[in-house]
C-alpha cells in the first residue's frame, strides 16, 4: 500500500469514528446532518465529534472512571495540544482529532475559532471542585457577561465552524458574510441555551453549574425571559438561511424545526419539571417535523 493510500484509508477510518460519535450521542442532530451533501456531512460530523469528546472530558467522563481532578486537567490539555499538533502535521494517532484536523485544514477553520472553544471548555474544568467535594460546594453561577463569553466559545464558534464548511466550496460575496455569520452565531447560541434549559438538573446537581441565572435555581420568570431570547435567536438564524447552500438549508432548517419544538415544550412545562427530567421530542414527532421542514425547503427551492 502506498503512503498516500495508507493515509486515505486511515482518514476514512477516522471519519467513520467521528460518525459513530454523532450516532451515539445525538439522534436529532444526527438526523439533520444526514440531510447534508456527502462532503459537508462528513466535515460537520468531524467537528461534532471533536467538540463532543472535549465536552465529555470536562463534564465528568474521566472522573466517572476514577481519574483524579489533576489528571483530568492533564487529559484535557493533552487533548488540546494534540489537536494543535494535528493541525500543523496533518495527521494524528487520535482518530477523532485526525478527522477534525483534516476538516479544519481543508475548510479554513483556524485557531480564531478553535481557541475560544477550548477556553470555554477549560473554564468549566477550572471552576469545578473535586468530585468528592461536590455536595458541599457552591454552585457556579454565571453572570450575564460570563454567560455571553461562555456561549460564544462553547457554541457560537461551532456555528461559525459549520459555516466555514458550508462556504469553503460555495463562496459568498462580502456583503452577505455578516448576515451569514450573525445567523451562525445566533443559531449556535439558541441551541446552547435550549440545552441549558434541558439540562438544568444535571448541570446544577452533578456538575455544580448554573449557566442561565446568577441564582442556584431558575425562576419561572427567568425561564420565560430565556424563552423569548431563544425565539429571537432562532428568528435571526432563520433570516440568514436563504443565503446558505441548498443542502445546508435542508439540514439547518430541519435542526431548527426540532429545536423550535423543544422550546415550545419547555415553555409549556412547569419549571419544576425541568429539574426532574430532560425534555425530549418523541421519535414519531421528530420524524414528522423533519419531513415537514424538508418538504418546506424543497417547495421553496422549486418556487
UniProtKB/TrEMBL annotation:
Superkingdom as given in the UniProt entry: Bacteria
A GO term for molecular function: transferase activity, transferring alkyl or aryl (other than methyl) groups
Coiled-coil region: none
InterPro entries: Isoprenoid_synthase_dom_sf (IPR008949), Squ/phyt_synthse (IPR002060)
Protein name per its UniProtKB record: Phytoene synthase CrtB
